[in-house]
Amino acid sequence: MAFRYSGQQALSHGLVLAIASCSLPAAQESAPPAAVMVEFMSPAVIETAQVMPEPLLFETATDFAEGTAAVRQGEQLGYIDTAGNWVTTIADANVEVAGAFAEQLAVARAGDYHGYIDPSGDWAIAVQFKQAKAFSEGLAAVQGGDKYGFINPQGQWVIEPEFALAESFTEGLAVVKQEGGVWLC
Q: What's the start-to-end Cα distance of the chain, in Å?
């Protein structure tokens, strides 16, 4: 028997609706139809005073990826390791937001444009894109002008900007939107 989580949705009064289903392997097709389970859960409230240290160490922090997390401490933006040690300071003081590393590059925004920084905190790909997504499978979806395309880790166009929207590659495919519909690229 296989179980599959279908999702959850917040309801009023702090309840969460979780839906899961179970089904039998194809070899047992003569079995009755799959059952569906609906369960209402009431999430426990966590008292933040007991969980969060005072004062907080960082104003913002991303999830850990590739062994580091982006953090802001006062005016300083950089990365910590999983032990909490400061390992990298972003060199450009104009960087306002930095993301998690993916394939040794992290999206960073300075002003209204995005580029990519390397693990040393320096620009690997200069700020030039209106929008930028994390690297996946050696490519990153970026908006150059009014259209999206894909660049490699050297910042070179591999797929020229021709899409209204583009998502990251997963298992060799990326969802893109062109006039007339949404396609896999």
A: 35
